[in-house]
Write a structure and sequence with these properties.
The structure is a homodimer. Chain A is α/β, with parallel strands linked by helices and about 280 residues long. Helix content of chain A is about 45%, strand content about 20%. In chain A, the strands form two sheets. In chain A, strands 3-2-1-4 form a four-stranded parallel sheet, sandwiched between helices. Chain A has a four-stranded antiparallel sheet with strand order 6-7-5-8. Chains A and B meet through α6 and α8 of A and α6 and α8 of B.
Amino acid sequence: MLHGANYDEAYEEARKRSQEHNLTFIHPFDDCAVIAGQATLGLELLEQAPDLEAVVAAIGGGGLISGVACALKETNPRIRVIGVQTARLASMKAAVEAGHPVTLPVSTTLADGIAVRRAGELTLPMVAKYVDEIVTVEEEEIANAVLLLLEREKILAEGAGAASLAALVNQKFSCAGKKVAVVISGGNMDVTLLARIIERGLVKDGRLIRLRIHLPDYPGALHRLTGVLAEHRANIVETSYNRAYFGVEFGDTAIDLTMETRGSEHVDEITAALSDAKYVFERIT
Amino acid sequence: MLHGANYDEAYEEARKRSQEHNLTFIHPFDDCAVIAGQATLGLELLEQAPDLEAVVAAIGGGGLISGVACALKETNPRIRVIGVQTARLASMKAAVEAGHPVTLPVSTTLADGIAVRRAGELTLPMVAKYVDEIVTVEEEEIANAVLLLLEREKILAEGAGAASLAALVNQKFSCAGKKVAVVISGGNMDVTLLARIIERGLVKDGRLIRLRIHLPDYPGALHRLTGVLAEHRANIVETSYNRAYFGVEFGDTAIDLTMETRGSEHVDEITAALSDAKYVFERIT
């Protein structure tokens, strides 16, 4: 049963239904058995890499990291455990600092799997005891980590799942020369959202650019322009004509062209070719 | 070194350079050592699943399947081996039928990793001897298999890598009740292409639709329309106004709205609401 737009609304509904129908409520993180189950991930890590020196995992309510950190630290206290939260909802960081759970204001994040506004009552003391450090990551960093996993590892992770890698890649903690395990903790990513993340990533890398180019308004003007672009192998994917806006001189036209390129060097080549051909244009970002 | 727009052009250049500079040319598929190396995949399959009954793998030049089929059949001749080619370049199928390699005309395909126009001299007799059946898959089937792997398995495969799954899912051969291994043989997928595959997949599932809606041309008309859509939670992602085209009555406007939906039931709900509100519209496909 799907209910509500976010974790809090779904949680409330589940609580209500469990009371109405006398059902067992299983808390997603503030539950000893759930935490113990997630601790087996820590045991598996130790089995697969007994010489581990640090482990990074995301924190939402804190269930996953409580279990993992407990398993690791009780076996080998020298292993560092780093928790990662989205900067938009760093509820566990706030709770550790305050010494008790704090309810943060509503916020949206790519990492919806860890968008929890209030740390757990059971998880907070475990995190305080076993986790060495809590760091935060920005939305852009999370999006880039999703793309990195997809392009390099061929793995689709959700935002919350990639947050741990985002912290590592952006050096939010020091682990140079150490043997580090990064827990990628979920792949529940909507492909619509993925398509948007890809597009933003392409724009950031210069592999998708939009230029507003001023053109004289006569037949053949666009054909001459597309000739220059074709010669330099820019792949036009979208066009939009503006005749009356954007300070266009009367008798002229401005066209917005969205193009796929091979990256920033290719963009430099294309813009140089347009300048050589005496076009007036600007890059839209 | 990147050269050429496709396999043939890159191949020619590599041949030329290896002769010019007296370098060792390693053929990508028509080479005994390459085939033997790929045969280890067959041995690994036997190790991991000794009770295998069928194996499906893609065929480009035929190196991978020659090795895998040889390893499987020489160990257990009862294991069925099915080869999969893109319908656009079924060069091995043509070669087996003709009894010798045939050069097919140039074609483009999502499965560029197996876009080989002519079967190998070494691989053809191996395929003829060890492969039970060669089936072909269509572009749309390949694209859907890429999406299926991404959404269900959280794996990014390239078109050639997903072709084998496409053949299985679309029942191109019979294997009901059998224990089948599907070789996903590559993940070299450009994210730009992936974004397009996702978009096409969403359109196919009705999760992305475009409606052309006729509107009276006065202030507030669009606001009334967006009210209907907002009430039914359609998420508008693109708009385009057409005042003078598409048989629009003078004084009226047609607007193309691209919307994200939850799928075909949601689309039915939205179009019913538009009809109830007396809008004239059509779905653009």
